[in-house]
């Protein structure tokens, strides 16, 4: 942990989901293995293009902007991450990652449980903030409020009211609409003899509405306070990470941030698509950490980057189909850089249905982050005891 | 007219308010024009029209597929959801669609595991076809439904290796409820469904490739041994099991409770459920008879049943679209509307688990409330939408409006919505800031004021209820 003498802020986790199934073989490229080129006839990265890690592995060339994390010893690469009996459905596999439940269909998300652990009484409506629309199940748990922000500068209630004075009035009136003083005045929506289940619902909605408004008001202050010389790229992901930095700098007590980048389901035209995606990720993440460092805010941030599965070892001529054995990354100032897990074997006899075998359980990654970084008891969250790495 | 609510007295709904209540519960709401037409037909005739969807024309599917060819065979969830939401918005058989949603919530099957939207669309079509028929038909059909078979692993349930997943959920979640059977009953129930499996409709290289599936009974996998189930002995197969289930009193209670909760209130009135269960038994589980009794009951028609349930996201989104009369033909952008349901926590065709969605106040959290309010406000605040123009037209006919009149008239045309007096006072305060309103033709600024008022009303707590 940070030992440089300045005040230590509570640890913050930023999660970036690469939705669609990122191809691990073209991310950390085993360019020193002949088998890679034997099996990948078309959708492959030539040895001279790879950004080498060592004589065997190297980064995709579009990862130039993120490679300095590795060079500085601040990037853990976890290869072969997955779970037994891999599921090849995006949604089901995501749910398994979200809920840490493989055998039954569960609804409580691992980060929802972590947030509940951090803020059991839900005192801060911004303990977790998702940048995106709709809530990924990872953050879902009954009673845990999470703000889902599509875009920070337009986030709020009644945003369709375009005139400023009208919206101002509307927001003032909104707080009256949701304020609960009036529920005691005798209204029972459910009728007089049912002793007010209707009232309970209205009271709950009242509190929720005020919380939502409070969250929006507080988030707006983040925008006003923010100043930075760091130039973020114009991509959607970069804008989301910039939003995360803005909220982080405003000290609103947010401990878990989440955002997703879609498009990794590269069944066709993989080479240009995958390159573009990794350029977007690398440049956005680099700008984000540059911003954190410029504001002396990087010490308490760790970022997890993951994807729901890998892709088939053999390509299909234009892209790759759903596979297993993914690659995850953990980045941060206090991360002990290195290769973790075991890079899965490409030998045909080691493959299952043409897919890589996982070598490390994704729940080990979660347990490591929860235990060593967030200081949260991991077992009830990941549903069992999983070996941890010494990463942070 | 806004109905003032005074404590201590429960009276019956009447007139437009009663019909609006019926259309919200037995459908997805109605425009004022539709309500006025229904009013001249009367409540019972309107109810019978709803109960007999076959009397109304079906959606023109050819037209849909001409504009949206991808929806015809879609394996992906977004177009399949878009198609269903479009149906809910445009159907002239609202109760048929509402029943499909009811059964989808009860027999909750999810795209997440299937990774194949077409089989979900096929399942919903089955639920739509049989939704008002008979519970026995529905239980038999859902047991033979390929999406359900795969979802609950019944294709791996054979005489050699029993898989109890479907057998257990049939008893626990689909027909009787926990506490009414033993673990031995679960085992024997599962045995009776061995060999109820699926096959692709088109022979494929992979057995469960991305073609539709259909039901297949494999006698070589079926366990023909004697079974004891709920005290009866015999060489039962799945349909025998369903017949035995239907003879159990808890089954009638179960179905009556689920219908009551879906159509009347989240909190059960046991006396009404008991009488509805009797209707179930006496009609041999005829769904139409049960609903007719329920919608004619005093309890359903009571003020106490009005605006007490939290709207599901599908009801909210579809209700708003029907109100503003947009997407009345297949055009670009329907996906964005369908996805709103997902953002609000109801990913149709993809419920979170076999239990379906958690309803009532669990529909609402901070993030979801923001989505609900902003979506609804954005739609009704758009004065160019045909339905909003109709509301403006009606208001224009009323002459100059005081702030009170503006609030009351807008709430009336959005429901009639019942506003609690502090809500009404806050809205009047909002309207008073700009004084009286006179809607002269072509005065967009005045029309925008109506849009803003409608936006505020759909942002209230009352509007989140149905």
Question: How are the elements arranged and paired?
Answer:
The complex is a heterodimer of chains A (392) and B (466).
Chain A: E1 12-19, E2 28-29, H1 34-39, E3 51-52, E4 58-59, H2 67-71, E5 75-82, H3 90-99, H4 110-118, E6 128-131, E7 147-149, H5 164-178, H6 197-225, H7 236-249, E8 256-262, H8 270-294, E9 301-307, E10 326-332, E11 338-341, E12 360-361, H9 362-373, H10 379-382
Parallel strand pairs in A: 1-8, 1-9, 5-11, 5-12, 6-7, 6-8
Antiparallel strand pairs in A: 2-4, 3-4, 5-10, 9-10
Helix pairs in contact in A: 5-6, 6-7, 7-8
Chain B: H1 15-25, H2 32-41, H3 43-51, H4 61-67, H5 77-90, H6 94-106, H7 111-114, H8 117-130, H9 135-143, H10 146-151, H11 165-175, H12 183-192, E1 196-200, E2 213-217, E3 227-229, E4 232-234, H13 238-246, H14 249-263, H15 270-282, H16 287-296, H17 313-324, H18 334-343, H19 366-380, H20 386-396, H21 403-413, H22 421-432, H23 444-458
Antiparallel strand pairs in B: 1-2, 3-4
Order of helices and strands of chain B: HHHHHHHHHHHHEEEEHHHHHHHHHHH
In angstroms, what separates the terminal alpha carbons of chain B?
Answer: 18 Å
% residues in beta strands of chain B: under 5%
Number of discrete helical segments of chain A? 10
Keywords:
heterodimer, A: 392 residues, alpha/beta, Alkaline Phosphatase, subunit A, 10 helices, 12 strands, 14% strand, B: 466 residues, mainly alpha, two-stranded antiparallel sheet, two-stranded antiparallel ribbon, 4 strands, 3% strand, globular
Characterise the protein shown here:
The complex is a heterodimer of chains A (392) and B (466). In chain A, strands 1, 5, 6, 7, 8, 9, 10, 11 and 12 form a nine-stranded mixed beta sheet that branches. In chain A, a hairpin with a 5-residue loop joins β3 (51-52) and β4. The model of chain A is unreliable at 1-5 and 182-197 (pLDDT under 50). The termini of chain A are close together. Chain A has a single domain (12-382), classed as Alkaline Phosphatase, subunit A, CATH 3.40.720. By secondary structure, chain A is α/β, with parallel strands linked by helices. Chain A is globular. Chain A has helices spanning 34-39, 67-71, 90-99, 110-118, 164-178, 197-225, 236-249, 270-294, 362-373, 379-382; strands at residues 12-19, 28-29, 51-52, 58-59, 75-82, 128-131, 147-149, 256-262, 301-307, 326-332, 338-341, 360-361. Chain B has a two-stranded antiparallel ribbon with strand order 1-2. A two-stranded antiparallel ribbon of chain B has the order 3-4. Among the domains of chain B are: 57-246, no CATH class; 379-464. Chain B has 466 residues and is mostly helical. The longest helix of chain B has 15 residues, at 249-263. In chain B, α1 packs across α2 (32-41), α3 (43-51) runs antiparallel to α16 (287-296) and α9 (135-143) packs antiparallel against α13. In chain B, 53% of the residues are buried. At the A-B interface, α3, α5 and α6 of A face α7, α18, α19, α22 and α23 of B.
